[in-house]
ABC transporter domain-containing protein
Amino acid sequence: MSDWGLEREKCFSLYEIPTNVSIDIKFEDIRYSVPQNGGKKDVIQGISGQFLSGELTAIMGPSGAGKSSLLNILTGFIEAEGNIQCTGPSQGKKGPKQHGKHSCYILQEDSLDSEFTVEEAMRYAAELKVSRCTPKKKKEFLIQNILDSLMLQSCKKTKCRMISGGQSKRLSVALELIGNPSVMFLDEPTTGLDSVSSHLVVTILKSLAQQGRTIICTIHQPSATIFESFDLVYAMAEGKCIYQGSSRNVISYLSSFGLSCPRYHNPADYLLEVASGEYGKFTDFMKISGIDGKWRNDYKNETSQMNCTFNIRENGTHRNYGTSPNELYKLWVLIQKSFKKMSRDWTISSLKLLLHFCVGTFLGLTFINVGNDASKMISNVGLMLISIVYLGYTSLMPAVLRFPSELNTLKKERYNNWYKLSTYYAAFLLVDIPMQMSFTLAYVSGSYLLSAQPLEFIRFFKLVLVLFLVCMVASSMGLFFGTVVNPVNGTFFGAISLALLLVVSGFLIFFTHMSNVMYSLTYISYISYAMEALAQATYGYNRPPLPCPESVDYCIFNSPTELLKEIGMDKPNYWKDITFLFFNFMFMRILAFCTLKKTISKV
Ligand SMILES: Nc1ncnc2c1ncn2[C@@H]1O[C@H](COP(=O)(O)OP(=O)(O)OP(=O)(O)O)[C@@H](O)[C@H]1O
């Protein structure tokens, strides 16, 4: 038997992964419109329907028919008018919140952790979803069972970025199966797959539906065999439902309008051609007939009667992994996962550390011995500014791109109850702190000695603290820009903000040379606070006069105090500046969290 034959054979004998809860979804008179050219466009025009547990449902229709919009309404990503009811737990709640905890949404783009193997990805998912009381052996059994069922055993040691498209889709399903969802929404699960892989994915979905789940997916042009696998076809055209019934009844339904599907023609293609208006304007009549329950499969209707009530099966054969771990444990898992990812991808940490060290060394060589020479004190202040700008830019720019690149993963994992956004954000912060600290240290270790800064621990510590906070403030600003505008504009805004704040930093034009109005602007520039703190750490706290070399005729400043006075940074404000930088960092992080939350709640 061919490989495909074997896989298929195995697929029909899937291990039982039954669900604990059966949920039917019923929606009535759903309407959704979007603003367009000063008016509004009706994307969904009062559609109704029922998706039952135990059924594999396909939402079909030509491009722009409103399939994704309907899916997003049912999952709760879009708010629309109308009524969504679910039989099942949380009956008191309204709309998609009713099934929220028991459902999962698998987006079209696979958002898998590229650095982990399939098995590792499954283990992390299990750590985040399965109760901590579950013994390790049982968790492992569960993982292997799901990998077996979805035919992923052969690639379980392969990194996620190396697996094929079909395996990626199956892995996305496998990761969600760990949480044993009762409702699965899938956005175009077969797009980009060849016919064999598409068939395998749909066969698996069908099998999962037969175990009591409600499986709903949007689909483009399925083959005739795939089309037949669907228990329910929900066809849409121009925001309306034109057919809702069994895939086997499509031909009879269409012939009731005098539309006869040519022999050897794929009924799915024919349905799409009719929906696209290729055979005339039938969609308005179909909108009325389409909701007629008689086109549903009779057998399924009987099943639906059984499932119409909330039904937690306590039968011993059904799995229950207890409550998912608490958020503190998830935080710990996410931190471990981030560090592991960093250790795998040398470009995340090692390359940056090396670059910071090299740039620090380069600047140290350029500004060699400026820190211990009275004639070069202004150059040393220049080095302080360059250090702030360098660390500011290198922290801000990657941060702008950080969340946009993870948005899909975040949306998926948050919606699918892997963790709360606050837990993810806290883990990100806790990993970011040592990272930024090590970047700062790598930079300083390259520049500090070469530029002959004072060999006093307290001054070294104070300098590192300022530069570290500069990294934290800049990266927080980057995160903020990356979550309010798109990445292109985010990098533009980030660069502009840094350039403007640089102007009022207190060095390109000294505080003492500024007009009162411009001086007041320095209060909002974190660079000016960082500059003052660095100048204080280096030259403040009664640092004795520096030697003026004999080769120089005249040193402008006799002592560090004179320099600080000239540049208007003579007040011992170090800890005040540190407090400002700290609160600036906290404020920007909180702001970035709020904007991130808003961004991921949108489609
Ligand atoms: N936020 C929006 N702003 C403007 N137009 C929108 C918005 N959301 C959806 N639309 C429009 O509504 C229509 C339906 O969109 P939707 O993405 O639901 O279609 P679809 O059937 O999933 O299409 P496809 O198969 O091509 O993905 C499209 O014409 C789309 O341009």
Observations:
- The radius of gyration is 31 Å.
- The chain has a mean pLDDT of 85.
- Residues 377-415 form the longest helix (39 residues).
